[in-house]
Amino acid sequence: EDDGVSVLQIEFIASPAAFAERTGNTGASQAAGSYSMRDHTIRVLMQPDAELNFRILRHEITHALIHERVGVLPTALNEGLAGFFENLRVSGMGGQVAAAVRRPGCGIDQPFRAR
After folding, report:
1. What is the per-residue burial (b if ≥16 Cβ within 10 Å, else e) of 18-45?
2. Which residue from 5, 40, 44, 91 puts its CA 20 to 30 A from 28's CA?
3. Burial of 63 (0-12, 13-18, 19+ CB in 10 A)
4. Chain Cα centroid distance, residue 15
C-alpha cells in the first residue's frame, strides 16, 4: 500500500566526467541533470550560477514526481511539464513562470537543456 511518501536522493556533482560516470552517460550529451527511475536519484551537474542549479533541480524533481505519482507519460508531455516547472518562482500562495528564460552564456538561440 502506498503511504504517500516518495524518497529521492539528490546528488550535486562537480565535474562533467564524474557526472557522466554517475549517470552512465559517457556520450556527448549536454544534459546538466538526470533522474534515474532505477535508483530514485536526481543528479545535477553543478553550474557556476546557483539559480541555474535550482532550475535544473526543479526540472528533474518534476520528472521524479511524474514518474512516482503519475507513471509514464509521452516524452513531449513529460519534458514540457518539466520545462514549465523549471521556471516556476514561488511567492507567498502563488507562483510565476518565466516561459522564455534562457541559459546564461549559451547564446540567445540555445535554450537550457536538462534531461
Report:
1. ebbeebeeeeeeebbbbbbeeeebbbbb
2. 40
3. buried
4. 17
Which amino acid is residue 85, in one-letter code? F
17 neighbors 26 (Cβ within 8 angstroms): no
Rounded Cα gap, residues 102 and 40, in angstroms: 28
Identity of the residue numbered 67: H
Q: What is the pLDDT tens value at each position of the chain, 115 positions in all?
A: 467 777 899 999 999 999 999 998 876 567 899 999 899 999 999 999 999 999 999 999 999 999 988 889 999 999 999 999 998 877 776 666 665 555 444 433 344 444 4
